[in-house]
Amino acid sequence: MRRSEVSLKPCEQARWLAWRLRNILCWSLPVWRQPRALASLLNTLPSTVRPVADALAARYDLKGWERACDAQGFRESLYVLDVLDRYAGSPDAMRPGLDIGCKNGCYLPGLQAWSGGPWDGVELDAHRRYWTLTTRRAHGEWVVHALPGCRYLAGNLLDLHDGYGFITWFLPFLHAAPLREWGLPVRFLMPRRLLDHAWTLLAPGGRLLVINQGESEVERQAELFEQAGIVARALGRIESPLSPFQRRRYGFMACRPYT
Ligand SMILES: C[S@@+](CC[C@H](N)C(=O)[O-])C[C@H]1O[C@@H](n2cnc3c(N)ncnc32)[C@H](O)[C@@H]1O
């Protein structure tokens, strides 16, 4: 163990060791899910949100969802599809999209249905394990198999170098507390560096949608955009009847200039 690791506070040191361990022991039991018909997935929703879900299912091609989604992934996919439908304008299906911090890929079906094109999801903590001994990565890879052209990328955003037409970033870590809650070492808190890098991944004319949670994150996000010299339009409160989340969410949209 290096001297710098010994000097970390005990909790931070424990998180760091756990992180290293799960990245060494990154095998997973295989994921297999019984495909569920769309009608059966729709039946898992509360009746109050059914009309909105039915309307989205009528307008978008949800091919692949029957194989990709469990009930939770279905709800989150519908939520992101609804958010993009309401706040993001027209998609650019020609260029791939990227979702930063995609967890287990559960809502990638929503992103893919919105644009109709390929998406990558990148996740730093891809080897986090469930009680079933399967990992986020194994789930993410199961999901993307059902979605043409989509990929689950286990790794750090900073290691990506492709050009994307649309980037979504739901709940970037802007403060230390959420990192701790998600069981990650605070050394991964680097919001400005990640924002600068995400911006370089956008092709000219490409757009970045950031969704934050709570007012203090919105203030911090606005500061970061300003410090990075990125002109971002505040979208205000992001509302969707399909949201399963309690805390208020807010959005920003930034478009990369052509020159
Ligand atoms: C607050 S969670 C949000 C997860 C998901 N986007 C959502 O809305 O539920 C932030 C996610 O970003 C991931 N993350 C943090 N830093 C990252 C990085 N440098 N590269 C890729 N993913 C990262 C975390 O592991 C975590 O899964």
Keyword list:
single chain, 259 residues, alpha/beta, Rossmann fold, 7-stranded mixed β-sheet, 11 helices, 7 strands, 40% helix, globular, binds S-adenosylmethionine
Model description:
The chain is α/β, with parallel strands linked by helices. It has one domain (about 5-255): Vaccinia Virus protein VP39 (Rossmann fold), CATH 3.40.50.150. Helices cover about 40% and strands about 15% of the residues. Strand 1 (about 95-100), helix 7 (about 110-115) and strand 2 (about 120-125) form a beta-alpha-beta unit. The longest helix is centred in the N-terminal third of the chain and has 17 residues, at about 70-85. The mean pLDDT is about 95. The chain binds S-adenosylmethionine (SAM). S-adenosylmethionine binds near residues 101, 170, 173 and 184.
What's the helix and strand layout?
Blueprint: H1 3-6, H2 10-24, H3 38-42, H4 50-59, H5 65-68, H6 71-87, E1 97-100, H7 108-115, E2 119-123, H8 136-145, E3 151-154, E4 164-170, H9 176-181, H10 191-200, E5 202-213, H11 215-228, E6 232-237, E7 249-255
Parallel strand pairs: 1-2, 1-4, 2-3, 4-5
Antiparallel strand pairs: 5-7, 6-7
Helix pairs in contact: 6-7, 10-11
The structure holds S-adenosylmethionine.
S-adenosylmethionine (SAM) binds at residues 100-101, 103, 122-125, 156-158, 170-171, 173, 178, 182, 184, 188, 194.
Structural class, please?
Answer: alpha/beta
Count of separate structural domains: 1
Largest sheet features: 7 strands, mixed
Bound molecules: S-adenosylmethionine
